Every structure is written in C-alpha cells, then in structure tokens.
Amino acid sequence: MAITDRAKTILDNIKNMPLNKKLALGGVGVIVLAIILTLVLWLPKQDYQILYSNLSAEDAGNVINKLKEKKIPYQVKDTAIYVPSDKVHELRLELASQGIPSGGGVGFEIFDKTSIGLTEFSQRVNYIRALQGELQRTIKQLQEVDQVRVHIAIPEKTIFTEKEDHPTASVVLKLKPGRNLTKEQVSSVVHFVSSSVEGLSPQYVTVIDQYGNLLSAPKDPTQLVEATQIEYRRNIEKTYEKNIQSMLENIVGKGKAIVRVSADIDFSKVERLEEKYDPDTIAIRSEQRTQEKTMVPQPGGIPGVLSNQPGQQQPTTVQNVQSQRQQESINYEVSKTISKILQSTGQIKKISVAVLIDGIYREEKGKKVYTPRSEDEIKKYQELVQASIGYNQERGDYVIVESIPFEVVQEEKAGIDYMSIIKTILKYIIPLIIIVLLIIFVVKPIIELLKKPAEGKIAKKEIVISDETGSSLFKERDIREEIRQMAKNNPKQVIAILREWIAE
User: Fold this and answer.
1) 114-146: per-residue pLDDT in tens?
2) pLDDT tens digits, residue range 352-391?
3) What angle do CA 466, 472, 475 make, to 5 degrees?
4) How many whole angstroms separate alpha carbon 365 and alpha carbon 375?
5) What letter would DSSP give residue 478?
6) Cis peptide upstream of residue 84 (ω within 30 degrees of 0)
7) 193, 265, 389, 452: most buried, per Cβ within 10 A?
8) Which distant-in-sequence residues (6+ apart) come within 8 Å of 463 by Cβ?
C-alpha cells in the first residue's frame, strides 16, 4: 500500500512539474534508455566456438540436422559450424558415437542395411566405396593431414586374357598450413594402403599433396635417382644452415641471424685410366751373354833356310789355332705406372651462403634507434662462415653477410598481442564503469528529485510567523489556511518569505 501511495505521489509530482522540468526529465529518460541499449549491445553475448570446420557437404548437413533435432542453437560462418562453447565437447562425443562426421566418405556401415536385389556389380562398387572411406578416415588421423581422398582401382578378374592387371591406388592429401610429411610418414601411408587392399603392391600406390607434388617414390628409376639427388642436396644445405646459424646465434643472440645455403653438387660418375712413364727411372728388362771357343787347324812350312830355297819342295805341317767369340745382349724398360681412378659422386662443386644479421638497438628519448653492424663485425662474421664451409675460391664459392633490422616484425607482433589484451579488458570494464556512473549521476539524482516534493508536502506543520516587531501573530496547524490569512494580513511578510524561498 505504501509503495502504491509513493508511486501515486511521484506521478502527481511529475504532473505538477513545470514544462521545462518535464522536458528535462524526458531527455534524461531517453539518455538512460540509449545507454542501456548500448550496454546490451556491448556486453558479450553467448560465446560460440567451432564445433567442426571444413566438412564435406554431406557431413555438414548431417551435423546440422542433429543440432536441429536437439534444438541446440548454432551458427554457420564460411566453412565452420559454431555452437555454444559449453556444449562443444559434449556434442563432439555424442556425434562421434553416431559416426558423424564420417570424414567425407562412407565406410563399411554401408553394409549395415542389406538390400535385396543388388547386382554383383553394385556390391563390388559398394565394397570399393566402403574401403576408400575407411582408408580416408584412418589417414585423416595424422596430425599433419587436414583432408584426404583415396581412389582405388581393382581390375576385374577374367579367364579370357593372360594379361594380369594389378590393383592401383592414389591418395590425395590436403596438409594443414605449415605442416609437411616426412619421408617415413609418406612411406607409412603407402604401406598402409597397400596392406589394406588385397593384391596391391606398394609400388602401385601414388601419394600427392594439394599442390600436385609427388610425395611417394616414383616408379621410374630415373625419377627415383633424381629425387634421391635432390634430397641429398637439401640435406647438405640444411646441415650447413643449421651449423652456421647456431654458431652466429651464440654470438649475436637467439633469432638475430638468418642463414640460407645453396650447394651445387656434382653427381656425375667418372672412371679414368691413367698410364704414366718415368724416363728418369730405367730398369733392366732382360740380359743375355754368349761365349764360344773353337780350335781351327792352320797349314804351315818348316821354319829355316832350306825351306825357303827356290825349287825346293816345301813340306807342310798342320797347326791347331784356338778361336774365341763372345756375345752379350741387354734389354732396358722405361718405368710405367697404370692407374684406374673411380671418382665418387656427390662432391660439392660450388657453395653459396647468404647471411642476414640483425643490428643493435638502443633507447633514445623513449624510442628505439637501430644501428647496423660495423664493417669490422661483418668481416669477422664473413670469415667465420667461410671457415665453417671450407671456403674455396678456386671452385667459385660465394659468401655474403649483410646487417638489416629485424625488430620491425617483432614490434608488429607484440603490438597485436597488446591490443588484443587491452580490447578484452575494456570489453568487460567499460560497461561496468558506465553502469556505476549511470547509477551515481543519473538514477540517484532523479530518484531524489522525484521524492523531494513528496517529502516537502506537509499538510500539517507547526509554524510560527512573527510580525515586524518580532511578536507572534498566530500559531496554526493548517498551513494553507495560514498562508491565506498571512497573505491578507501581512502581504509584505509573504513577499519577503517568497523572495527568501526563491533565493534558496
């Protein structure tokens, strides 16, 4: 009852207000209403989080139908489905128990409902579809894989041809941003698919990524050799980059150096046969000596005067004479060396290194000032890099070291984080501050203004009005009647009182 009387009194007071006060009160009401609406729009609404994203059209439709059945609010933005944050994990578990999402393909649940009248061809197609779907679901469990498609071709067996066709499979992987599969992971995918399909050999499984890059080993031996050579070169480059960067970061600081290495590798296989002669070194190849002695008879006369007279028959005698013959043959050979040289592959023909080093920052008047590295420092770093790669000027090695500022990127990243934190804080603090200010400076004064006339309206109050001499003229209970009498009897006193009230 008291509340009703107070409300009636407030309404009466509003009606008796002058026009200017009514307009002011109405303006204040409009301002309060506008502030309330602003706060309603500003205050955070129900928080929504991603339930699933990048679903196929079939899976997205199934998820939305389940949400509608359960009368759970949801939002669809781009390729993602949002639900209230407090229901995300519960919904994922519940939908997973029902096989939703299925991963963009149907699995062996296709055979849960048997259909009468299916042909052998239809059964075969359903089997291949189910097998592809199951493989897709399993491969998608890899952390690096976002989406996957598997295509299997199983040739029909026939007795009318001697040619035996092999099953083949193709796997298309859409990797998550910034993720790559290692060689071992690709090999695991290949063997997993080949092991899941009867008669499928790993060499007939092809794996590519969303950019069309071949991830599995090629079947062509030439391509296989090229892929191995490329991987060998990349490993050498990465090894040099890692060693140089770790060395420089220990000097200039973590994250203050960027290193890139390009290596030119010689993969040619050279077999060389060399034959060398040394004229200064002579060796006896063979030596042969022959010695021969013989006795040869020689006719002769008698020595003296008689045998020399004319007409005298000369008697003859035979004498044995010894004959000797000696023969020697020596063959010499010049020194010769024969070498068969097989040059190994994978030798570095040329190596180029580019190094970027951050400069030095100092505070000046509250601002960061960048100073590049001195020429002596750059020269020292360059010599260190050359020593680490085994620099060889004759083969054309090239090393360049430059100093550039890195801090710009770091400041932008830090600024984004700070702005996000400040925005989050203001999002909750500003509405609270506005509400407090609204109560203190708007709501409370209005309530006081509306209550003041009602409290000041006293029907009966004991007052004493004195005349100019200070003597009491009357003492009454009814203030209205007193005011009438006073206005009649003492108009000057009434005027003085009114002026005093107006002044107050």
Assistant:
1) 666 677 778 888 888 888 888 888 888 888 888
2) 999 999 988 888 777 788 888 999 999 999 999 999 999 9
3) 100
4) 27
5) B
6) no
7) 193
8) 475, 476, 479, 482
